[in-house]
Amino acid sequence: MNARYRTPLFVLAVLAASAVTCVVTGRLARCVCERTPEPPGERLRRELALSPEQQPAVDALEREHAARAAGLSARIGEVNRELAAAIRETGGASPRVAAAVLKNHELQAALQQAALDRVFGLKDVLTPAQYGKLLDLTANAIEGGGR
Q1: Structure pTM?
Q2: The domain 3-34+65-138 is classified under which CATH number: 3.30.1330.10, 1.20.120.1490, 3.30.70.1890, 3.90.1010.10?
Q3: Are the C-beta atoms of 79 and 105 separated by less than 8 Å?
Q4: Are 108 and 18 in contact, with CB atoms under 8 Å apart?
Q5: Per-residue pLDDT tens digits for 55-113
Q6: Are 72 and 33 in contact (CB under 8 A)?
Q7: In the chain, where the domains are located
Q8: Cβ atoms within 10 Å, residue 8
Q9: For 129-133, which contacts have Cβ atoms below 8 Å and span 24 or more sequence positions?
Q10: Over the range 134-145, which residues count as b (16 or more CB within 10 Å of their CB) and which as e?
Q11: Distances (CA, A) of 3 to 8, 91, 94
């Protein structure tokens, strides 16, 4: 392959991978975003019929996830600003643009993993039936059916 086309093709491949990750992460977050008025953890309480004994452990995991997700979201915003600056300053495909896209992709993946870690972290707190329902809710949200 001609060296002249390698960098633009690489940038396009990275952008495509980043777009797929953004779509998957967006689907995970969509349920939460569309139900903004509902307090955090309320949907879990309602959908899983949490007992008063389970609630403190679930709340602690929710707080931990919220802090982790906020940090990652802030970092994604910073990287998006870096990407925008790189596009403006380089005028198109460049190693700097590719590096920012890769970093965005890594952070989006970390955010998705944080959401999944939150779900999987509830296994020891929930009953097997509750955990099974949580996994179904999570899978539905990923597929787009959790709206």
Answers
A1: 0.66
A2: 1.20.120.1490
A3: no
A4: yes
A5: 899 989 989 999 999 999 999 999 999 999 999 999 988 999 999 999 999 999 999 99
A6: no
A7: 3-34+65-138
A8: 13
A9: 130/48, 130/49, 130/50, 133/47, 133/48
A10: beebbeebbeee
A11: 10, 19, 13
Determine the pLDDT at residue 36.
Answer: 56
CA atoms within a 13 Å half-sphere pointing along the CA-CB vector of 141: 20
Structure tokens at 137: 């809710």
And the tokens for 49? 């019929």
- In a 3-state reduction of DSSP, which class is residue 25? helix
- Cα 115 from Cα 64, distance rounded (Å): 11
Q: Which of 141, 64, 75, 69 has its CA nearest to residue 105?
A: 75
Q: How high is the pLDDT of residue 30?
A: 57
